[in-house]
Automatic annotation (TrEMBL):
Domain (Poly A polymerase head) ranges: 16-134
Cofactor: Mg(2+)
Record flagged with keyword Transferase: yes
An MF annotation (GO) of this entry: ATP binding
Domain tRNA nucleotidyltransferase/poly(A) polymerase RNA and SrmB- binding: 161-223
Pfam families from the UniProt entry: PolyA_pol (PF01743), PolyA_pol_RNAbd (PF12627)
Top-rank lineage group of the source organism: Bacteria
SUPFAM superfamilies named in the record: Nucleotidyltransferase, Poly A polymerase C-terminal region-like
Matching CDD domains: NT_ClassII-CCAase
Family: Belongs to the tRNA nucleotidyltransferase/poly(A) polymerase family.
Keywords, sorted A to Z: ATP-binding, Magnesium, Metal-binding, Nucleotide-binding, Nucleotidyltransferase, RNA repair, RNA-binding, Transferase, tRNA processing
Protein name: Polynucleotide adenylyltransferase
Species of origin: Vreelandella sedimenti
GO BP: RNA repair; tRNA 3'-terminal CCA addition
């Protein structure tokens, strides 16, 4: 780690790198961001050194040049429900060890001085060696978001052999059954879930939440066999950068749900419109592919023109062709033999010209009907 003593803004301050950066460096995992804690300083002293205050609930400052976060050492006391139900005490008399004590897991409670020396009061290094996610104290249960965070960390590090300590899993189950998870903001739940969906083993996030009885709080639709099917589908993500990997995985995960179930889940989690829409479109593609594969009156690789046209219409392909292109990437994974016919059908439908129909004398409602009829004819011809 580069020493910060050469930075005149930090001269004379007791500064420590903390949390994920220290943990990941010890693990040999990529480090992208640094977080710092400052012991013995005041907000006024930080402002005078040019740091920009950004914390609403406790003093956090951004370095004016690096934009890295510097938080004053603090303690917390539970005062309400959910993630935000805490009273924060930040002052020069809060020690480094007291600040580390408020953190969730032992592996996240290691501090590193600007000289590279480690402060590890809860033996996080030992748990890194043992590949264990372990809570620091019973205060873990005061913040229900930690249940999701721990599951997310396991989704990140499961491939390294990490497990959750039995006593920590027991505590996670206790929190889930206490009703505290219900007080989390939907937006916070989605933030953690979106991060987990981008981890190397995203399925572990959901199976862990199922093990500790948290899944049925926010994801009751993903129960039993539905979860098994969703996780299997999630492993078949298309090679497409049109949408973020996490959003593709979410769409795949909820593909076994009914339209009503999917919409209910989207509303409960207050999903961004783009995420909910990708899930709907992915479900449409599954429905199209599954219909063609299970319709015994047709060859196994046959597609019906009317069904394909409805698919293109519901994807809003004429106005947003990238949505069709994205789903074609999914078809390439699910049913590669059908990509060629669908691409041909899509190309043929797009070549039907409204201007040509207008030149033929069509207008108003008749124009719309003729346009749809010609597109269906073009799709049928392309498929056969």
């Amino acid at each position: 780690m580069k020493e910060t003593d050469s930075d005149p803004r930090l001269a004379g301050l007791n500064v420590y790198r903390v949390g994920g950066a220290v943990r990941d460096e010890l693990l040999g995992w990529p480090v992208y961001d640094n977080d710092w804690v400052v012991v013995g300083a005041t907000p006024d002293a930080m402002r005078k050194r040019g740091f920009k205050p950004v914390g609403r609930d406790f003093p956090v400052f951004l370095h004016p040049e690096t934009a890295e976060e510097y938080a004053l050492a603090r303690t917390e006391r539970k005062s309400g429900h959910g993630y935000a139900g805490f009273e924060v005490h930040a002052s020069p008399d809060v020690s480094l060890e007291e600040d580390l004590l408020r953190r969730d897991l032992t592996i996240n409670a290691i501090a590193q001085s600007t000289k590279g020396e480690l402060t590890d009061p809860f033996n996080g290094q030992g748990d890194i060696e043992r590949r264990v996610l372990r809570h620091i104290s019973a205060a873990f249960s005061e913040d229900p978001l930690r249940v999701l965070r721990t599951a997310r960390f396991l989704a990140r590090y499961a491939s390294l052999g990490f497990t959750i300590a039995p006593e920590t899993l027991t505590l996670m189950r206790k929190v889930s059954r206490s009703g505290e998870l219900e007080h989390l903001a939907a937006e916070r739940v989605w933030v953690e879930t979106e991060k987990a969906l981008g981890e190397p083993s995203p399925e572990v996030y959901f199976t862990t939440l199922e093990r500790c009885d948290a899944l049925n709080v926010w994801w009751p639709e993903l129960a039993g066999e539905v979860l098994v099917k969703g996780l299997a589908a999630m492993a078949q993500v298309p090679d497409s950068d049109m949408f973020p990997l996490a959003h593709w995985r979410h769409a795949q995960l909820v593909s076994p749900l009914s339209d009503e179930q999917r919409d209910a889940l989207s509303e409960r989690l207050k999903l961004p419109n783009a995420v909910a829409q990708l899930a709907r479109h992915t479900a449409l593609t599954y429905s199209l592919i599954n219909h063609s594969l299970t319709n015994h009156a047709l060859p196994a690789d046959a597609l019906e023109g009317a069904s394909v046209l409805r698919w293109l219409e519901r994807l809003d392909g004429w106005r947003k062709p990238e949505q069709v292109e994205g789903q074609l990437a999914l078809v390439k994974v699910l049913a590669p033999e059908q990509v060629g016919p669908l691409e041909s059908a899509w190309k043929a439908a797009r070549e039907v010209s409204p201007q040509a129909l207008i030149a033929e004398g069509y207008q108003g409602a008749a124009l719309g009907e003729a346009l749809r009829e010609r597109r269906e004819q073009a799709v049928e011809a392309a498929l056969t």
